Amino acid sequence: MMHIVTTPLTPAAFAPFGDVLDATGTPDKLINQGLCGRFHDRARLDFGEGGRAGISIFDAEPRALPYRLEMVERHPEGSQAFIPMHEHPFLVIVAPDTAQGPGTPRAFLTSGAQGVNFNRNIWHGVLTPLANPGRFAVIDRIGATPNLEEFWFATPWEVRGR
Description:
Blueprint: E1 2-5, E2 7-8, H1 11-14, E3 18-21, E4 29-31, E5 36-38, E6 52-59, E7 67-74, E8 80-84, E9 90-95, E10 97-98, E11 101-102, E12 106-109, E13 115-118, E14 123-124, E15 128-129, E16 135-142, E17 149-160
Parallel strand pairs: 1-17, 2-12
Antiparallel strand pairs: 3-13, 4-5, 6-16, 7-17, 8-13, 8-16, 9-12, 9-14, 9-15, 10-11
């Protein structure tokens, strides 16, 4: 089995794969009589031709580290955002695309106050909460054409914490 060690999720490290959704730094503007900071336009949502944005709620069973990674998936027709409805860290796995399929995966651990938006066609692991509840708001493409490809690794990877 091959091994991957998690790293903290940062916007710079995750940029090739998508967007980190968080409320760090200074808000872009104050709204609601100055009582609410707006961190504006944090994700590049992309729903392709003939698609529309949909918001779903996922309730996933928690996993644990070390985690056995056997499969990744991607969505060729649109981006996909995972926004936790809790304050627990979760595992984010991505892999670059190569001529043979997904390349070497990378594993990130969120801070518990971050979500992610995967760009269109980015290989990524399944939703992987590490604690209960595993509830997430998911924003992705709703449309008539297929929007899921899966790739099963010949040799699984083991994802370990730092």
